[in-house]
Amino acid sequence: MPEGTLCNRKPIQTEESLKTLLGDTSGTQYYKQMKELDVDQDLLWSTIQKTCKSRIRTWLEICAHCGMCAESCFLYLINDRDPKQVPAYKIQSTLGEMIKRKGRVDNDFMHMAMETAWAKCTCCNRCGMYCPNGIDMGVMMGYLRGLLYAQGFVPWELKIGAGMHRVYQAQMDVTNEDFVETCEWMAEEYEEDYVGLHFPVDKEGADILYTINAREVKHYPEDLAEAAILFHAAGEDWTITSKGWEQTSLAMFAGDWEACKIQVKSVYDAMERLKPKRMIGTECGHAHRATVVEGPYWAGREDGLPPVKCMHYVEWVAEALRTGKLIIDPDKRIKEPVTLQDSCNYVRNHGLKKITREIMSYMVEPGYFIDMSPNEEHNYCCGGGGGFNGIGLFRKERNKALITKRDQILNTGAKLVIAPCHNCWDAIRDLEEEYKIGIRWSFLKPLLVKMIKFPDHMQPKE
Amino acid sequence: MYEILTGPMIWLSLSVFVIGMIVRAILYVRGLNWQLDRVAYRAHPKAGMKGAARSIIYWLIPFGTSSWQKQPVMAVIFFVFHIGAVCVPLFLLAHNMILKNIFGLAFPITLNLCIADILSWAVVLCAIALILRRIALPEVRILTTTYDYFIIFLAVAPFVTGLFARYQVGEAPFWYTMHLLCGELFLILAPFTKLSHITLFFMSRAQLGMDFGIKRGGLKGANITW
Ligand code: SF4
Ligand code: SF4
Ligand code: SF4
To answer: Taking phi first (over 0 means left), then psi (-120 to 50 degrees means alpha), and beta for anything else, what does residue A396 get?
Structure first.
């Protein structure tokens, strides 16, 4: 069979097809159809010829097959040092083979490649730091995902995710109205306790444009409230936008580059329309990566920078605490062993390694902060990165992958894990559910809301 | 045979090597694409240069990176092998005399014969260690192909034959001829095989360094700890 009704090479473009695919519980039919899906070998080869240039070709060619990357990959370590988990093997046996065979690969090969690209790599880019030849397998896996996506070989959830971005410019079916209404609802809920709390919408020329992760609207609206409370307490001139508010990109995990562009352009349009001094995104790693680090390239911006200065939430928190915009009540500092998850997406891949530790120095009573080992840009992935968290088909593999982080946390002895990243937060929650090691986990916002001193004008009048 | 190998073939092989490597480097740079690679190479030359320099220098320092520190045995094999493989051919007195004869100039430094001996033996021993490592370690075995052994062969053959010639094992002219042949084969094949890493190592390292220096944190003022 060439292309199935659910599993095919066409991206999801309409709400209707999105609903149809969602209706196929766990993608049962979808994966069945994938078994029959033909490979468009000409398309595959012509795409490779057009897009696989000297950087990746050289990487594949000069790889010394030395295996020094093996131990850098947490998935290799956690899977009993399975040689098939060596980063160089994972890429040589998939992308390398595809190129060697000039795109003449079959359905079985594509299934193997799909499993490798999504269940054996979280695109955490750690191996790239350990290869003498400067070969970054995470980058190549991302490229491979793009090739697989274009052929229809992509996990069900990510096909849907990419479709969501195309249809809603959000990773979930959250409309612009839903977003603004949820914010208004949150303001109502919380304004009694935090006097004057509101969400400025579409304010032009504000100091800060705040962008978010659609999950906050759907599942954790308190996160929106907390962001507002903290901006308000810090006396910031801020705004949300009624359009282009979603910072995440499941399309990036899926390898749907066109959808990545659509998504990030919607945010850049908001920046251009509202002309804020800077944009601050919520506590999410991949969202930051997508909008701030990779986004400019999808959008075709030659300077590699977004239209306005962009910061991750941790940068804003550090600045607010450093400058005294937010003041922590010393009595309320954290006085229990606490550790911190370094998100690959903004630590290894955007250098924000010191700033989170600066935050810890303000929030945690001296002596209680314990770093994981390894840490900073050498940290291990939480185990759920690159879309791994969300793929039902690979749940077993993902749960195994969590063990690395579990043991890292256990070794610190900390009972509280601060994870300023949605994806890592999810993974840590899941690892507690799966392995019950008795930890709590948190974003920065809820902790800060409990710790800071509020200015008088925000205090409720008795 | 000997005449040809010491005369025109030296010219030819050196030219193929030098021109080939330059062409590879040029092709590499021309094949870089800011949008596909997602690195704004041109827009931030200073940050890019800094990232590139750090990425190369740290990796050239023995134990200069986490990776070298984590794998000390491999690091020692790697550095000894490469130091020998680079220094002996370049600075050996006998080589310099040939260069002087042909081109009229040579490197000002030459290796003390004893050091040259030690380095040459070290190269051969390291090559054996590399081969054993390929066989012994599952994570390396799975990656290894015949081609990898061929590359090791190309790289050490000039040393083995050179040592035979130096100790005048058997008939000296035979080993000299073999040595010349292997050395010239190495030079001629290098640009077309994995040996192109002689140049491409630097290109690839520089590229990843620019990636980190420009996009992945360099512009935020963070220096990656390699
Ligand atoms: S460390 Fe680098 S050169 Fe060695 S096998 Fe891994 S990718 Fe290849
Ligand atoms: S990017 Fe991360 S998960 Fe993927 S191969 Fe490298 S180290 Fe392993
Ligand atoms: S989920 Fe977190 S730890 Fe894992 S790759 Fe993404 S940012 Fe890194």
So the answer is: alpha
Cα gap B170→A87, rounded to integer Å? 47
Closest residue of chain A to B29, computed from CA coordinates:
A54
- In 3-state terms chain A splits into helix, strand, coil percentages (rounded to 5) of 55, 5, 35
Who among A62, A70, A83 is closest to B197 (CB)? A62
Sign of the dihedral defined by the CA atoms of residues B10, B14, B20, B23, in that order: negative
CA distances from A384 to A21, A307, A309, A398, B130 (A): 24, 30, 29, 6, 35
Q: Whose CA is nearest to atom 2 of ligand 2?
A: A124
Task: For residue B203, give every residue at least 6 positions away whose Cβ sits within 8 Å of its Cβ, in sequence order, or none.
Answer: A58, B25, B28, B29
- Which residue's C-alpha comes closest to atom 7 of ligand 1? A88
DSSP, res A381:
P
Q: Does domain B2-210 have CATH number 1.20.950?
A: yes
Question: What pLDDT score does B172 carry?
Answer: 67
Cα gap A179→A189, rounded to integer Å = 15
Could you give the CA distance from residue B19 to residue B35 in angstroms, rounded to a whole number?
A: 29
The ipTM, to two decimals, is 0.94
Residue ranges in A221-379 assigned as alpha helix (H): 221-233, 250-254, 257-274, 285-288, 295-298, 313-323, 353-363
Whether A264 and A354 have beta carbons less than 8 Å apart is answered as no
pTM: 0.95
Facing residue for A133 by CB, picked from B28, B31, B204: B204
Q: Is the dihedral of CA B17, B20, B23, B25 positive or negative?
A: negative
pLDDT of residue A100 exceeding 60, the answer is: yes
Q: Is the dihedral of CA B135, B137, B139, B140 positive or negative?
A: negative
pLDDT > 90: what percent of chain A?
Answer: 98
Question: Any chain B CB within 8 A of the CB of A311?
Answer: no
pLDDT at A285 over 80: yes
Residue located via tokens 């994972």: A90
Tokens of A161: 């995710």
Confidence of residue A6 (pLDDT cuts 50, 70, 90): very high
User: Helix-strand-coil percent breakdown of chain B, rounded to 5?
Assistant: 80, 0, 20
All structural domains of chain A = 39-154 (no CATH), 168-320 (no CATH), 328-451 (3.40.50)
CA of residue A366 to ligand 2 center, whole Å: 34
- The answer to whether A440 and A409 have CB atoms below 8 angstroms apart is no
B221 neighbourhood in chain A, CB within 8 Å: 351
The identity of residue A388, as a single letter, is F
Asked whether A130 and A69 are in contact (CB, 8 A), the reply is yes
Of A67, A304, A354, the CB nearest to B140: A67
pLDDT value at A1 more than 60: no
Of A333, A335, A273, A342, which is closest to residue A308 (Cα–Cα)? A273
- Check pLDDT > 80 for residue B1: no
A356 — contact with chain B (CB < 8 Å)? no
pLDDT digits (tens, 9 = 90+) for A350-383: 999 999 999 999 999 999 999 999 999 999 999 9
Q: How far is CA A278 from the centre of its chain?
A: 21
Q: Residue B91 pLDDT more than 90?
A: no
Three-class secondary structure of residue A100 per DSSP: helix
Q: Which two tokens stand for residue B125?
A: 């021993």
